[in-house]
Amino acid sequence: MGDKVTEVEQHGIAPIPPEEQTSRPRDLFRMAFGGANTFATIILGTLPIAFGLSFWAAVAATVAGVVVGALVLSPMSLFGPLTRTNNAVSSGAHFGVVGRCVGSFLSLLTAITFFAISVWVSGDAVAGAAQRLFGFDGGEVLRGVAYGVIAIATLVVCIYGYRFMLLVNRVAVVLGTAIMLLGIVAYGGTFDPGFAGTGTYALGDFWPTWILAALTTMANPISFGAFLGDWTRYIPARHSRRSLLAAPFLAQVATLLPFGFGIATATLVADPADYITGLTAISPLWYAIPLIVVALIGGLSTGTTSLYGTGLDFSSIFVKLSRVQATLLIGSLSVVFIFVGNFVLDMVSSINAFATLIVLCTSPWMVIMMIGFVLRRGFYDPDDLQVFNQGRKGGRYWFTRGVNWRAMAAWIPATTLGLLTANTPMIAGPFKDIAGGVDVSMVVTLCTAAIAYPVLVKLFPEPREVYSYAEPVTEPAVAV
Hints:
Layout: H1 25-34, H2 39-50, H3 55-73, H4 79-83, H5 87-90, H6 92-95, H7 101-134, H8 139-160, H9 162-187, H10 206-222, H11 228-232, H12 241-254, H13 256-266, H14 275-282, H15 285-317, H16 323-343, H17 347-376, H18 405-421, H19 441-459
């Protein structure tokens, strides 16, 4: 791959040649922060206020969700430098080269959600700012055109690939941060940190609603779990694990800026559930143009970081599709979701439902990956991870017909129990009241995965060859 951003990236999910691993952990920070320093994160920041929380309760829930989510996310940066491929393919070492399709499904779920959020909020911000500046109410036609333009621009960046995305995120980090800080001047005179909330909690009581806000916030860092490998595969393994762990963690902590912007400004709008319209209505005229800029740049940044990885991954499942063709296919499906979600369904409720699915489906998958990393002591065979992508069978990670049933037998119950105990407006399981209405689904799904997978590996040892004939951390593996 050339160094020019104008060259279309040719690499798919095959291992990146070592000589082309030229990125650094700070590039990972820039990609992860740039992809989240956007209006999509701002929208997630407004939801605790829309749920009825006070300003300080919303801040506490957001900080808790971001920090816990960042701690779960950080270890996912360790795989790419070793396997030189994305995290979905890397998961084949633990789920089997066919079972790794679980990771592909999770990346698809996340890509559609965050691509939709980025295009939706950016398009609404453009339409709202146009009305504020020029008094022109284009209605649904203007919004539809704005969605289409932003979606096409996002697809173009994804098609060019990693280097172009890195450039967009460099701009997004600086410009987005500056404009959000400028919001202190724009809204500082009317902001009241004593905002007491709407008086009506989304789930009836304070603590269930507070937990709902924290879990919704957590969806932001968790959503990067399937995508970190898209960027870390360009980082050589010689970099310290400490720096690889720190980059995504610090990037997520830095997102407290856009989260804080969303929380603070949501207290000012008349209806937090209609945030974009309300924000443009209360914005000073001089701030309307910067608002459009951060919406457009941020939309590109968030949309590309999610869509790029899914297009990359699906090109390996449907081998007749190139990375570019797979990206166009997934992008087109996402655009359909945007229009249906916004013009037919309730987009805020749809986002909340997808955010819940992302957290409860992706977090146990990540836990199994992390435990597997420890058990394997960081050993991976990049060539054998590519068996399924190349239409072959066998290799270290073939297990049983390409699936490691131990990992699947841990992930499926963990996800199922999480959904059964969930308590959200759109997804409410039959056991939602098991803790007095407090949503314990995250604790249930993480604990189930963290206990089930090591126990299954101990009772039914994995083939010795996945450890490169070294002793596993738990028990000696059966010979193959």
